[in-house]
UniProtKB/TrEMBL annotation:
<keyword id="KW-0808">Transferase</keyword>
<keyword id="KW-0949">S-adenosyl-L-methionine</keyword>
<dbReference type="InterPro" id="IPR029063">
    <property type="entry name" value="SAM-dependent_MTases_sf"/>
</dbReference>
<dbReference type="InterPro" id="IPR000780">
    <property type="entry name" value="CheR_MeTrfase"/>
</dbReference>
<keyword id="KW-0489">Methyltransferase</keyword>
<feature type="domain" description="CheR-type methyltransferase">
    <location>
        <begin position="1"/>
        <end position="273"/>
    </location>
</feature>
<dbReference type="Pfam" id="PF01739">
    <property type="entry name" value="CheR"/>
</dbReference>
<dbReference type="InterPro" id="IPR036804">
    <property type="entry name" value="CheR_N_sf"/>
</dbReference>
<dbReference type="InterPro" id="IPR050903">
    <property type="entry name" value="Bact_Chemotaxis_MeTrfase"/>
</dbReference>
<dbReference type="InterPro" id="IPR022642">
    <property type="entry name" value="CheR_C"/>
</dbReference>
<protein>
    <recommendedName>
        <fullName>protein-glutamate O-methyltransferase</fullName>
        <ecNumber>2.1.1.80</ecNumber>
    </recommendedName>
</protein>
<dbReference type="GO" id="GO:0008983">
    <property type="term" value="F:protein-glutamate O-methyltransferase activity"/>
</dbReference>
<dbReference type="GO" id="GO:0032259">
    <property type="term" value="P:methylation"/>
</dbReference>
Amino acid sequence: MELSDSSTRILAGLLEARTGQQLTMNRRWRLETALSGLLRERGIATIDELITILVMGREPGLANQVVEALLNNETYFFRDRSPFDLLARHALPLLRQARAKEKRVRIWSAGCSTGQEVYSMAMLFAEEQASWAGWTVDILGTDVSQQAIDRAREGVYSQFEVQRGLAITQTIKWFAEQGSQWRAADSLRKSLRFQTHNILEGPPHPGGFDIILCRNVLLYLSPETRRKAFDRLSSALVSDGWLMLGAGETVIGQTDKLLSDKNARGLYVHAANSGQAERRAGRG
């Protein structure tokens, strides 16, 4: 079925208005697939008919359902494993030194989708439990998708989902089998919080975060919106904290507030405090 240009423009405008994300050309091919379930559920024959209902405003909640269907919730445990190894090997030991007095660490996973990234962070700390004894580890996962956040908060994953990124030993250690699914252990869940939030809004927590993960979210934003997102992220990152982006993302040419950590390529620090990061790493 050929989708009209006007319907495509309306869907693209709705997605960008609600989330800041652009419906790029390489995402438009999947519009029919993404919306097929909603069409069946609503008994709507075509996307053009769906657009007519949206424009007429006959069903106020339909726009939210359309946006949910269009969002890309692709994620998996320890995605692109090396950045997590870098956090464990470089950032977390330095944080343990820097926060030795207050014994508190705050981490934000922005655009966390269905939560695998957040649980991956929890496992990093849990695997080094003795080193973090007596610490308060607060890990917040946020996403614009309410459906994704509901799933993340539930912490229940299919066999296919746990196999993506987790070794069998990790699955057995940190998840309990429930029929054909796996539920995250309470020992992981106790340090986690989830809420709906758009990174283009103000920081979701006062006081700032020691580590922010924002991976494969900025790819979908326009250059102008991406600069705004970097402003929000840098304002939420404490002066000696780290930002981790996706494998295909960078701060180069996007913002002058952040730059690559010379001691940990793949992590980003405040430009104004890059020298501090070098000195701290030297002490480590």
